[in-house]
Specification:
The chain has helices spanning 11-22, 35-38, 59-62, 84-105, 139-143, 174-193, 219-228, 248-261, 280-288, 313-319, 327-334; strands at residues 2-6, 26-30, 67-70, 109-115, 123-126, 130-132, 159-161, 196-202, 204-206, 234-235, 242-247, 266-272, 277-279, 295-296. By secondary structure, the chain is α/β, with parallel strands linked by helices.
């Protein structure tokens, strides 16, 4: 199989490239090498240093490609509305240009790196009033330490449950809006062209090669950087936020399975997760190990959601994917994994 991989030099893209080449597939790597993600690093040998927003010029590059695996994107919440044009340009325009180029070149299969952020808050229920969809948490509640979502009927704290792929989208950050737009473009492309799309909704990815101290750093890398400086990891809210942390090697394997399976026309989405919920405070403790005890600060970010934990069942049934690295094991090992500087 001949694969065109965008974002091939990035944290996840590098692991994906290794998984595909290890399985005997040919990888054509493309990466813009944005300084926000790569610093001053040079592209790895053989990487095409190109901008996905100009993909309609890639006629020759896409010739003979069996499947495109699209990893490139601006990531992070998008801290300010001033970030909107950059996210819309790199993520949305870039994806639209890539899809148009694929159609022109006759490439009909896409694996899209999506994200759990499209869900916004996860799935909640009130013991008395059943399923509820909470509104965004207010700055006043967060500042007062009222972090849990409340039932809009009775005001009681809502309990969380697993989010499946049929959960309605509710993006609550600039990044989330751009990832949902990518899915919508891909779904429209599949309908209009007869193409096949597997959208992989990554949960919190961590592991070797994670960037250090950049806007692309995930919370696990930030915790580790604090520990390496001899400082306690800073935990927002009360640390009780529930998430799913999935190792980058599992994410790479999910991409491989999706690329080998995608073929039937249409759009399908899959959670890529460990299936094991973990609190942010427990993540900080696992990464800190015997280092400084995490500090719960009560701080917050308005773009953050309280709980979002995934169901892994659809990916298991359709792709044969289940994570192999348990968070308790992977996060402890992450203390010693090499990071990118």
């Amino acid at each position: 199989m001949r694969v065109l991989l965008t974002g091939s030099a990035g944290f996840i893209g590098s692991a994906v490239a290794e998984a595909f080449t290890g399985a005997g597939h040919e990888v054509v790597g493309v990466d813009l090498m944005l300084p926000e993600a790569h610093g001053s690093a040079q592209p790895p040998p053989g990487t095409h240093h190109l901008d996905v927003r100009e993909a309609t010029r890639w006629t020759g590059l896409l010739g003979g490609i069996d499947v495109v695996v699209h990893q490139s994107a601006l990531v992070g919440l998008g801290a300010d509305v001033a970030d909107l044009p950059a996210y819309a340009s790199h993520n949305d325009l870039g994806t639209a240009a890539l899809l148009a180029a694929m159609h022109e070149a006759g490439v009909a299969r896409l694996v899209l790196a999506s994200s759990m952020v499209i869900y916004g808050e996860g799935r909640y229920a009130c013991p008395t009033h059943g399923r509820q969809h909470p509104a965004p948490r207010t700055a006043e509640d967060l500042a007062a330490g009222r972090f849990e979502n409340a039932c809009p009927v009775c005001g009681s704290p809502l309990g969380w449950s697993l989010v499946d792929e049929d959960t309605p989208a509710d993006p609550r950050s600039v990044y989330a809006a751009s990832k949902l737009a990518q899915e919508h473009y891909a779904a429209a492309w599949a309908r209009q062209t007869g193409g096949a799309v597997a959208a992989l909704r990554y949960h919190n990815v961590y592991g070797r090669g994670m960037p250090r101290d950049t806007p692309y750093s995930g919370v696990a890398a930030m915790f580790r950087s604090s520990v390496e400086r001899g400082e306690p990891p800073q935990v927002f809210e009360d640390g009780g936020q529930m998430r799913d942390f999935v190792h980058v090697d599992d994410v790479a394997r999910a991409n491989l399975l999706a690329a080998e399976a995608v073929g039937e026309p249409g759009f399908s989405a899959y959670n890529v997760c460990s299936g094991t919920p973990v609190s942010i405070l427990d993540v900080a403790r696992a990464v800190a190990g015997s280092g400084p005890e995490p500090e719960v600060t009560g701080g917050y970010r308005l773009g953050d959601v309280r709980h979002v934990v995934a169901s892994p069942e659809r990916a298991a049934r359709a792709l044969g994917f289940r994570a192999q690295v348990e968070p308790a094991v992977g996060l402890a090992a992450f203390r010693h994994d090499p990071l990118r500087t």
